[in-house]
Amino acid sequence: MKFIADLHIHSKYSRATSSDLNPENLWLWAQLKGIGVVATGDCIHPVWLKELKEKLEPAEPGFFKLKEKYARALLAQVPVSCQASERVRFILSTEISNIYKKNDKVRKIHNVVIFSSFDTATAAQKKLDAIGNIKSDGRPILGMDAKDLLNLSLECDPKTLFIPAHIWTPWFSVLGSKSGFDSIEECFEDLTPHIYALETGLSSDPLMNWRLKQLDRFHLVSNSDAHSASKLGREANIFDCEFSYDGMFRALSDKKDKGFSGTIEFFPEEGKYHFDGHRDCQTRLHPKETLKNKGLCPECGKPVTVGVMARVEELADRPEGEKPQNARPYHNLIGLAEIIAEARGVGKASKQVDLVYRQMLEALGCEIKILMDVPLKNIQAVAGDVVAEGVRRMREGKVTIAAGYDGEFGTIKIFDGEERKTIEGQLTFF
Ligand SMILES: [Zn+2]
Ligand SMILES: [Zn+2]
Fold first, then answer.
1. Residues near 111 by beta carbon (within 8 Å), at least 6 away in sequence
2. 276: CA distance to ligand 2 center in Å?
3. Is residue 291 part of a domain?
4. Which ligand places an atom closest to the C-alpha of 305?
5. Ligand nearest to the Cα of 174, by number
6. Are residues 256 and 341 in the same domain?
7. Which ligand approaches the C-alpha of residue 276 most closely?
8. 217, 248, 269 - which closes a domain
9. Neighbours of ion ligand 1 (CB under 5 A)
10. Listed residue (360, 261, 367) closest to 1, CA to CA
11. From ligand 1's centre to the CA of 19, what distance in Å?
């Protein structure tokens, strides 16, 4: 069965996340977006785990569904065209921040751990509770070697999926420029074969990761890392396998299995760490400019935060454009609300955008389907010429992006100032 899975999100118990991140809203937004399997996030946090045990019930092995009594109250908010309440499943996952010293350097690495059952998650929770504070933050910060965390996860269940998170982020990732390593093996040593997938993060896409031969053995997955429910699925995975934990486990762990069929991606320039620079100084530097400036910020003279593009270049051992044998396809998407906002020349959070968004979902189905599959003439009929043209440009990759840097998201431009007026009434997609 073909389905979309978002395996890394956060709950309301993580720092700097929205209070709307409860099981009910995840269930609701998964349907609006078109996600079949959504991670619970934060499942080691005691209060959140208790809420999950209360509100979810077993479905297919390793998958869980929202109990009917919690779903019922929200059903009216899901347009009939998007309703898939019988198909939204939860999977137990958490992100953990490992901060520790190895080979004389402080390492700060985020990892996503996905559990096959409540029993395994509870067993891991017990072990981690003895090691550090798992109560104050949904994404616990532990002074524990990432390799030891992998070992602990496998002790709970060899079928635990362990995925190094957003592997290029400068400050918090396994290959990050500031506190990571130069290879996955340097971090996980002899346990590396138990890692099947790496999360590319918002600031990089598979094309960039294909530059490193050392990554060929891993599947490249993508997740939203959502801090609010509406961000769900902004990056996600496409599976075509048995609809169960085991089906997904096989798809990622067995090299011969064809069940993992690719990813949905940001345009990597949109990510917060694509270019180099200083956020406080508002200096956004292409890696070539950074080189020219000898790595220093032209405003304050201090070393800039080196972004993902430069870091990939530093570790790359394969020319651009070459595709490894096992590579899966990917699709660069922009959020529908952003396209509508661009088309109308209004803010993303405006009432107008929300109205058109809802109208489109009601008429055409869930968001990911609209972005990827719905014929342009159908989009044109519901949302008008400019929105349809926006979707066309996104599908063809014809958008302009001022790249993100040092924690600042990139900004997308689909239309130039006067263009919106000239497009209106001029188009035909028939
Ligand atoms: Zn993280
Ligand atoms: Zn500066």
1. 95, 96, 98, 146, 149, 150, 162, 163, 164, 165
2. 11
3. no
4. 2
5. 1
6. no
7. 2
8. 269
9. 110, 165
10. 261
11. 18
Ligand with minimal distance to 299 CA: 2
Residue 27 lies in a domain: yes
Is 91 among the domain residues? yes
| Domain total of the chain | 2
Q: Examine residue 138 and state whether it is found in any structural domain, yes or no.
A: yes
Say whether both 227 and 372 belong to one domain: no
* 287 C-alpha to ligand 2 centroid (Å): 15
The answer on 108 and 225 residing in a single domain is: yes
> Which chain residues have CB less than 5 Å from ligand 2, an ion?
278, 281, 297, 299-300
Q: Are 226 and 360 part of one and the same domain?
A: no
How far does the centroid of ligand 1 lie from the alpha carbon of residue 365, in Å? 31
Ligand nearest to the CA of 283: 2
In order, the DSSP letters of 334-361 are --HHHHHHHHHTS-TTSHHHHHHHHHHH
Ligand closest to Cα of 297 equals 2
In 3D space, the residue among 94, 102, 107 whose CA is nearest the CA of residue 171 turns out to be: 107
129 lies in the same domain as 254: yes
CATH number of the domain bearing residue 245: 3.20.20.140
Task: Give the dihedral of Cα atoms 189, 195, 197, 199; nearest 10 deg.
Answer: -60
* Å from CA of 296 to ligand 2 middle: 8
- Reported as type and span, the H/E element at residue 156 is helix 146-156
Q: Which domain holds residue 120?
A: 2-269
Q: How far is the CA of 172 from the centre of ligand 1 (A)?
A: 7
Under 8 Å CB-to-CB from 288, ≥6 apart: which residues? none
Residue 166 CA to ligand 1 centre (angstroms): 7
Instruction: Give yes or no: residues 187 and 44 share one domain.
Output: yes
Same domain for 253 and 351, yes or no, is no
Distance CA 160, CA 153 (A): 6
Q: Distance from the CA of 275 to the center of ligand 2, in angstroms?
A: 14
Cα 279 to ligand 2 centroid, rounded to whole Å: 7
Q: How far is the CA of 105 from the centre of ligand 2 (A)?
A: 24
- The position carrying tokens 């985020």 is 110
Q: Of 269, 293, 308, which one is at a domain's C-terminal end?
A: 269
Question: Same domain for 179 and 42?
Answer: yes
d(CA 169, ligand 1 centre) in Å = 9
Tens of pLDDT along the chain (430 residues)?
A: 999 999 999 998 888 888 889 999 999 999 999 999 999 999 999 999 999 999 999 999 999 999 999 999 899 999 999 987 568 999 999 999 999 999 999 999 999 999 999 999 999 999 999 999 999 889 999 999 999 999 999 999 999 999 999 999 999 999 999 999 999 999 999 999 999 999 999 989 999 999 999 999 999 999 999 999 999 999 999 999 999 999 999 999 998 999 999 999 989 999 999 999 999 999 999 999 999 999 999 999 999 999 999 999 999 999 988 999 989 999 999 999 999 999 999 999 999 999 999 999 999 999 999 999 999 999 999 999 999 999 999 999 999 999 999 999 999 899 987 888 888 777 666 5
The letter for the amino acid at 287 is P
